[in-house]
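A reminder from the course coordinator: this example appears on the midterm review sheet, so study it carefully.

Given structure:
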């Protein structure tokens, strides 16, 4: 065999093997980015769960007779904290929690002293910052899931994904539909 023939054989075997290695490593990297992004979401959700009881306790001091709203927030917080299922399962309970938190903030509208309370304002601001961080983490996570799905469904990387067990459905989006804001009804 001549040197030219060896070079051609090396190219014909080398490039596909190199492509296989690069694609496989890319899929592993994306999967690891997804797991890291989910850990970031989990951290922010835990931060929210830690803030909620403090916010509710502050509100309870001002709105003793509004216990149903406050207890609902705590019950949903506990439900969300215990839910360690898939992103889709967690999104369901998170939507309910966000809705009840909006009710808590609407409740504060009925209590001017509560709205002016520095502790309540600080906790509310921390919760708003946490919600922003959750949104950012969720966008980052979903971007990684989208990249993973694109790579596992696009030709020819889908062939490599199929060979090495990277199904497109293995990673779920974390989608929490925005809660419609209703006008706050203030009554005196």
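Designed residues:
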């Amino acid at each position: 065999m001549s040197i030219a023939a060896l070079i051609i054989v090396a190219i014909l075997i080398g490039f596909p093997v190199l492509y296989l290695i690069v694609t496989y490593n890319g899929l592993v990297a994306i999967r690891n980015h997804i797991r890291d992004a989910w850990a970031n979401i989990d951290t922010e959700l835990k931060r929210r769960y830690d803030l909620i009881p403090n916010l509710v306790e502050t509100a309870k001091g001002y709105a003793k007779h509004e216990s149903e709203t406050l207890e609902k927030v705590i019950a949903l917080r506990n439900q969300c904290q215990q839910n360690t299922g898939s992103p889709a399962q967690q999104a369901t309970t998170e939507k309910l929690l966000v809705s009840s938190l909006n009710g808590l903030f609407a409740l504060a509208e009925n209590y001017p002293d509560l709205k002016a309370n520095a502790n309540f304002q600080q906790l509310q601001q921390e919760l708003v910052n946490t919600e922003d961080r959750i949104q950012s983490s969720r966008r980052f996570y979903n971007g990684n899931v989208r990249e993973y799905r694109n790579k596992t469904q696009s030709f020819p990387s889908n062939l490599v994904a199929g060979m090495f067990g990277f199904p497109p459905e293995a990673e779920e989006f974390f989608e929490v539909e925005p809660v419609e804001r209703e006008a706050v009804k203030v009554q005196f």
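The chain has one domain: 3-170. Residues 3-62 form the longest helix (60 residues).
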